[in-house]
Amino acid sequence: MTSIKLKTPTTGEYEQPTGLFINNEWVKGVDGKTFEVINPSTEEVICSVHEATEKDVDIAVAAARKAFDGPWRKVTPEQRGKLLVKLSELIEKNIDTLAAVETLDNGKSIAMAKGDVAAVAGCLRYYGGWADKIVGSVVDTNPDTFSYTKQEPIGVCGQIIPWNFPLLMWAWKIGPAIATGNTVVMKTAEQTPLSALVAANLVKEAGFPPGVINIISGFGKIAGAALSAHMDVDKIAFTGSTVVGRQIMKSAAGSNLKKVTLELGGKSPNIVFDDGDIENAISWVNFGIFFNHGQCCCAGSRIYVQEGIYDKFVERFKARALANKVGDPFLADTFQGPQVSQLQYDRIMGYIQEGKKEGATVVTGGARHGDKGYFIQPTIFADVTEDMKIMQEEIFGPVCSIAKFKTEEEVIKLANSTTYGLASAVHTTNLNTALRVSNALKAGTVWVNQYNMLHHQLPFGGFKESGIGRELGEAALHNYTQTKTVSIRLADAIF
Ligand code: TXE
Q1: Which residues cross the membrane (predicted)?
Q2: What is the pLDDT of residues 117-140, one digit of tens each?
Q3: Does ligand 1 have an atom closer than 6 angstroms to the CB of 288?
Q4: Are 218 and 53 in contact (CB under 8 A)?
Q5: What's the pLDDT tens digit per position in 4-22?
């Protein structure tokens, strides 16, 4: 099997197989295809990896089915938990390599990549803890029957993840699926396959039986589509664009009605009231939009500021954004690296042009940073109106839109006036305002006086067109179990 020697600015040389990880083995794709992986900081090719096509999806699904119907069934919940904890420990042990590979492939700063890897370990450990705490209930319907429910695994789970948090999305999906006793075929994003391949080594080292966790690199329209339409996949979990989310649902409906969970886009409102602590609010607004270069489904991209502090806010926020260090993601103090790909770079620059054309005020940014790599200046648009594209559509880059509001009623209406409903935030020192607005916002998460503070114990997911189901927390376990009712007659027949 092909392998590459990977060397990053923060790690020594390291050998990594680049095949498909099926049945705990590295294999080539049946069609023998490979594709190139690009370093977004330099636009140079890092390496090529093997590409899964429909036939490989069939092979991976068959491996996952065999494991699910065979040895995995005999593994006790406690053992499943131990395996996840072991994997978590190995992730922690390999944090430097995993973070460096993530930075190389995705472009996120090394400090943020380390944060992601630590969160991966936390997430896997958390779900390891759940594995032997999944319980049913006894339901007392009448004295002549004894009835109980069981939470059983769904079966073979297809999981399709995006490129913005390659390893973290891997953990969010694998953790609850494995804790509940399913098997997995995971397709990584074609832009960022590498960190999951490094993690696949650790899956084997942790001692998972063959076929339980299978990881394939490949393209959405080929391997992703095959997985979502597969007749032997019992459940599909997807994180990505709303457009593809709809296609996944159609594929599920048109094939075997597999269960579907979706974590899609957003255009999340970040509301700053006159009485908010302005310096604190600016720090969180800055982090809310510019963290991970704006490539977050929950990015706080619509910023509503109350009229009394609007001018002051815009001026100070500009100074804060200009202080974000943009550049080489391997430098310890870099905050913002490149966007993930040429395609994403072009999309974002298109939105920036559109914002300028529509007449929004460019407070700062609005152009490329440097002349190599997919870097974009942190960009703030002010005086943005509701009808502008930059206020309505997900940009998924370091670009935000600010608008002024007068009253609480008005801002609630504005905040809710989108088809999305993933996240939101309120900055105020008034407890009543915080609670009233949190109650009124139609979003899966409301942050008060903070932003982007996700935690594996807290459910995360979308209202409206931002998704179906919840990831993280106890809620994610429901995505991966199905209820069985057993009812036993204790008395003689009545018919
Ligand atoms: O997403 P895609 P893209 C949003 C964000 C971004 C836009 C486009 O607005 O600008 O989507 O990004 C796989 N069947 N988000 O084009 O195409 C694909 O291979 C099955 C939000 O990268 O949705 C990858 O693994 N799978 C977001 C994954 O879907 C398919 C994260 C995501 O790719 C497929 C990323 C198909 N037909 C982008 N087509 C979030 N919610 O966090 C593609 N894929």
Answers
A1: none
A2: 999 999 999 999 999 999 999 999
A3: no
A4: yes
A5: 888 888 888 888 999 999 9
For residues 28 and 20, what is the distance between their CA atoms, to the nearest angstrom?
6
Closest to 327 (Cα-Cα) out of 151, 103, 157: 103
- SS3 at position 463: coil
ipTM score assigned to the predicted complex: 0.98
Instruction: Answer whether 220 contacts ligand 1 (Cβ < 6 A).
Output: yes
Note the pTM of the prediction, 2 decimals.
Answer: 0.98
Separation CA 218–CA 193 (nearest Å): 8
Buried b / exposed e along 336-347 (16+ C-beta atoms within 10 A): bbbbbbeebbee
Residue 95: predicted pLDDT: 97
* Residue-level length of the chain: 495
For 432-466, write each residue's pLDDT tens digit: 999 999 999 999 999 999 999 999 999 999 999 99
Which ligand 1 atom lies nearest to the CA of residue 347?
A: 10
Q: Which uninterrupted H or E stretch holds 472?
A: none
Atom in ligand 1 nearest the alpha carbon of residue 296: 42
Burial environment of residue 131 by CB neighbours within 10 A (0 to 12, 13 to 18, 19 or more): buried
Q: What is the pLDDT of residue 1?
A: 65
Would the CB of 224 count as within 6 Å of ligand 1? yes
Instruction: Quote the Cα angle for 364-276-376, to 5°.
Output: 20
Residue 123 has which token pair?
A: 């997430």
pLDDT tens, position by position, 468-495: 999 999 999 999 999 999 999 999 988 8
Residues with catalytic roles:
263
Burial of 474 (0-12, 13-18, 19+ CB in 10 A): middle
- Concatenating the DSSP letter of every residue in 127-143 gives HHHHTT-----EE---T
Instruction: Please identify every stretch of the chain with a pLDDT value under 50, giving residue numbers as ranges.
Output: none
Cα–Cα distance between 261 and 482 in angstroms, integer? 14
- Determine the distance separating the centroid of ligand 1 and the alpha carbon of 425, expressed in angstroms: 25
List for the chain the helix, strand, coil content (%; round to 5). Answer: 40, 25, 40
Buried b (16+ CB within 10 A) or exposed e, 80-101: bbbbbbbbbbbbbebbbbbbbb
Domains of the chain listed by start with CATH number? 3-264+469-482 (3.40.605.10), 269-456 (3.40.309.10)
Describe the strand order of the beta sheet including 20-22 as a list of residue ranges.
25-27, 20-22, 213-216, 183-187, 156-160, 235-239, 259-263, 467-468
Identity at 142, one-letter amino acid code: N
Q: 247: Cβ below 6 Å to ligand 1?
A: yes
